[in-house]
Amino acid sequence: MTNRSKLAALGALAFAGTLALSACGVSQDAPAASAGGTGTAQAAACAGTSDNSAAAPTELTLALVPSGDAKKLVETVKPLETALSDRLGIPVHGVITADYQAAVEAIGSNQAQIGMLPSLQMSQACDKYGAKPALQTLRKGKSSYAAQMFTNNPEKYCSDTPAPGPNGMLYCNGTGSGNGPAGLDAVAKVKGSTVAMLSPASPAGYIFPVAAMKTAGVAVEDVSPIKVTANDASVLAVYKGDAEVGFSYWDAREVVKKDNPDVGSKVVVFALTNEVPNDGMSLSGKLSSDWQAKVNAAMLDFSSTDEGVKALTAIYQITGMKPADVATLKQTQDAARSIGLG
């Protein structure tokens, strides 16, 4: 079986919910704290480990988590799989895991040696399994982003008239720059509303918005949650009227716009949370330091090419990569603990 057909086959199993890696993790509805580790290991940012007695790998597995349509990810990850295989001289197989925690557990059990993970799971994989937080993604030059709150009822949440931002979509309450925090005075109005949110493992789809709600005096129990599995699904829930408010990374409406050109006028961003550290690449602590460095260099090299930017943008809207800042990654753990998930 070729690398590409193996990826497609594993991806198809993920869609059916039977991918072997999914059995390692917790359900998409389970709290993020279940993979957080305990005790003094969490007191400081974790830099990861390596096993210099490990034999050189003959192949590597790359674990990814869908942030949108999983079927599209199976196709869009192929250029990355090929590029890493070519640069490292051994096959790199991509697998689509069922959820964030499944990817962490895959690295912990050595079913995957490379993981593309959100910031919280990068820290968790390090705390629990010694996985090295190697690289962080860049989007439009930034290594952090704001989680956004959006609505189909701007009259309730906007203190000013919604206006187009640089991407032509509507924003209010000073959220058009995409830099958080902004518009948090409106968060208290979420009380009593239907809210589309991701699992508690999601920094942008749950942790940071729920922390902002708590600061505004609104508990999760004060809203009617509509659980969704991806950022684009959160946008679509508000677009279709299934929820009045939704949470996602900034600006997930762009993913939905292709099939729904009017989403930017029907769904208005009204608040931005504190900045969330970007996701990135973690490497198994069971790899030697030499192989960690090789994988690191291969990903950095690919991300610096036009071909790489195109491929990574298609996967996760990534426009570049840089060495991970483990101290900033810990901010997501701190936010999770502030709402009882740590």
Question: What does this entry look like structurally?
Answer:
It contains 13 helices and 13 strands. The chain has a six-stranded mixed β-sheet with strand order 2-1-3-12-4-13, sandwiched between helices. It folds into two domains: 3-140 and 279-338, D-Maltodextrin-Binding Protein, domain 2; 144-277, 3-Layer(aba) Sandwich (D-Maltodextrin-Binding Protein, domain 2), CATH 3.40.190. Helix 5 crosses helix 13 (326-338). The chain has 342 residues and is of the alpha/beta class. The chain has helices spanning 3-16, 70-76, 78-88, 100-108, 119-129, 154-157, 203-215, 231-239, 253-257, 263-266, 289-303, 306-316, 326-338; strands at 60-64, 92-96, 114-117, 132-138, 144-151, 163-164, 170-171, 194-197, 224-227, 245-249, 268-277, 280-283, 320-323. The longest helix has 15 residues, at 289-303.
What portion of residues belong to β-strands? 15-25%
The number of strands is 13
Q: How far apart are the termini?
A: 42 Å
Unreliable segments of 5+ consecutive residues: 1-42
Order of helices and strands: HEHHEHEHEEHEEEHEHEHHEEHHEH
Number of domains: 2
The strand order across the widest sheet is 2-1-3-12-4-13
For the sheet with most strands, the description reads: 6 strands, mixed
Number of helices: 13
What is the oligomeric state here? single chain
- At the first level of CATH, what is the class of the largest domain? Alpha Beta
The CATH topology of the largest domain is given as D-Maltodextrin-Binding Protein, domain 2
CATH superfamily of the largest domain: Periplasmic binding protein-like II
- Shape summary: globular
Quickly give the structural class. Answer: alpha/beta
Tell me the helix content. Answer: 25-40%
